[in-house]
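thought: fold this chain, then report.
action: predict
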Amino acid sequence: MTRSIAPLLGLFLCALASPCAAQAVIEGTVRLPKPAPAALHPPRYPNQTVQPGPADLPSAVVYLEGAPGGDAPPRSARMAQKNLQFAPGVLPVRRGTVVEFPNQDDLYHNVFSYSKAKRFDLGRYRKDEKPARQVFDTVGVVRLSCEIHTHMQGVILVLDTPYFQKTDTRGNYRLDGLPPGSYVLKVWISEKATYTRPVTLEPDSKLRVDFAGP
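observation:
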């Protein structure tokens, strides 16, 4: 009797444990916009001689909407100010993530946002000062600026899913560890460039989804 029950008990425990669950993969490419030509920005103050470093090359955020989120808590993240740019320029995070904004330049910076999803102002701070961390608990796009260096622009994309990834500079992406089911695959490049595709994931399957643009 005991021997007949043991295999069934093992299958039941395996079904409950995430490592045993049959997971799926989605991979593909996103057609990215061409990089904008570099622009020179005159310093706001005459004695400021530091020039901005190169901005990030275009990328997209690919994420799976509607999938169960699991029990893992959101992680912390960092968006730095480096070479007079936000680094990274686009930061996708899961809802509830705590984000730090370290200043890695040898001059003052400021980080603020008037976005509906998150309004805050960290004030001006130096490299050796640590500003207050921010919790991003509302889904949406949060646009960031620096009051001192007006050319600096960054984006935090707050998502209600743990399944997301930025593409590389060639537009390649891969989402793995996905639960089987029917969901919506989304791509965010900007508020004016977003794409969606319904997907159905089978256990232990690999699906290729490419986005060629409009």
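thought: worth noting. The two ends are 62 Å apart (CA to CA).
final: tokens above.
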